[in-house]
Amino acid sequence: YKRVTMVVTYETQLPTYEELTVPEIPLGTPYLRAGAFHVGKKCEVQNNEFMLCKEETGDPRACLKEGKDVTSCSLDFFKAVKKSCATEFTSYAMCIERSSKEMFYEPCRKTQAAFDACVLENMNIERPHWGYFCLPKIH
After folding, report:
1. What is the pTM of this model?
2. So what's the pLDDT on residue 1?
3. Confidence category of residue 6, pLDDT binned at 50, 70, 90
């Protein structure tokens, strides 16, 4: 593990507020957890580019464009979910929120199945299997 310390001095050029301003995703934790697997799959390319940029440059300021691309992709995904699967998504998110203080997925498999089917049918995004994001991939 390499620890990088970034010291900010008066010579350090920081981004302006305009450069940092992006539309936020106005959802709470249960909704983000409910959509996490699908949004991860939908925005995989943008997220990989962002993570690669951060790793290669060691300076998050150099990756603002890639970060905005991830946020934009995620926002587009949740807008599409709202348009085509709002009822199933809300049911699943509410189940996650009420399942336990840790917001476990396990008690919500029925609502998850309904949401997964809706997203597959309307958005053509299949829910990735549990270990999908841990698999090594060539980029």
Report:
1. 0.85
2. 58
3. low
